[in-house]
Every structure is written in C-alpha cells, then in structure tokens.
Amino acid sequence: MSRPRRELTVTVLACAVGAAVVLLAAGRTWRERAAGPALAGPSRQIAETGRDLVPWLPALALAALAGAGALLATRGAARVAVAVLVVLAGAGMAAGAGYGLTFDGVRPGWPLLCAIAAIPVLSAGAYAAVRQGNWPGMGTRYERMGGTTGPETATGTGMWDALDRGEDPTERR
Predict the structure, then answer these.
(1) CA distances (Å), 88 to each of 4, 96, 103, 117, in order?
(2) Measuring CA to CA, how many Å separate 59 from each of 3, 55, 168?
(3) CA–CA distance, 16 with 65 (Å, rounded to integer)
(4) How many whole angstroms separate alpha carbon 153 and alpha carbon 129?
(5) What would the CATH number be for the domain defined by 3-33+45-138?
C-alpha cells in the first residue's frame, strides 16, 4: 500500500473509530437522579444518558462518521471542506463532553471517554485538511461521462433497456 493511501486509510479509520466510541458512550447512563415522590410513594431513580443530557452529541458523532466516508469519496476543495466539518464535529463532541461533566451527579467515566474519543476525530479532520493534496480520490469510473447520454455510453443494462424499447443500441444518432 502506498504512503498516501495508507495516510488516507489511517485518517478515515481514526475518524470513524472516534465517532463510533462517542456514539456508544453517549448512549450510556451518565447519571441517575431521584424523581419527585409520587403522591405517597417512594421516589424512584431516573437514569439519564449522555443523549438526554447533551442531545447534540450523537448527531455530531453521526456527522463525523459520515465525514469519514466523505473523506474517501471526495478530493480537492470538497475534501478540505469535509475535513473542516470533521474538525468542527470533533470540537463540538469535545465541548459536549465537557458540558456533560457540569451536570450534578454525573459519573465522569462516559463523558471523559467522549472527550478522549473526540481527539482522534479532531486530529483526523485537521490532518486531512493539511495532507489531502496527494491522497487518492475515487476512480473516475464513478463519475458521469461528459457529453452524450444514450445507449452508446450506457452500461450493459442500458443497452438491454434500449433493446426492450425497440431501439438499436449500436446505432449512432
């Protein structure tokens, strides 16, 4: 594997793993609090997850996961824009984890894990923004051909569709 391809792979994996860990940790119980007593009954405990306390945390983690995939699919200015969005998502995840620590009774384990997992996301985005110039992009086979659209430029399926319509796919128009 060439060095640019390896850099891209490691960067995308770091971003995806960090985002997945934040998504997992945000779904865990961060604190339990007593609910007000029912009419004459005892109070009950309510478990609150990171998702309950910091609702934007899972959304940012999903955005970072999508950004990891977009880093593979884009190149040039679009890849830089995606990398900047990944940096912002990582910073938002770290800030959300810090905000989660400010609630009374929060067990610090899960919010700290979120903060630690936001570091590779942030780093991957920053690294991608700087180093993306020599990274490979998706092959041109995934891009639309310029110019004509018709059976002569279509795939094998397009030719069969042309035959079904009663057209000759080999005939030039």
Answers:
(1) 24, 12, 23, 14
(2) 32, 8, 50
(3) 5
(4) 36
(5) 1.20.120
Inter-residue contact 27 to 35 (CB < 8 Å): no
Give 2-10's long-range contacts (Cβ < 8 A, gap of 24+). 4/134, 4/135, 4/136, 5/135, 5/136, 7/127, 7/131, 7/135, 8/71, 8/72, 8/135, 8/136
Higher pLDDT: 71 or 151? It is 71
Closest-CA residue to 72 (of 4, 15, 12):
12
User: Rounded distance, CA 65 to CA 86, Å?
Assistant: 9
Does the predicted TM-score (pTM) go above 0.85? Answer: no
pLDDT digits (tens, 9 = 90+) for 65-107: 999 999 998 988 999 999 999 999 999 999 999 999 999 999 9
Q: What is the DSSP secondary-structure string of 107-147?
A: -SHHHHHHHHHHHHHHHHHHHHHHHGGGS----GGGSPPSS
DSSP state of 28: S
- Going from N- to C-terminal start, the domains of the chain cover 3-33+45-138
pLDDT of residue 75: 87
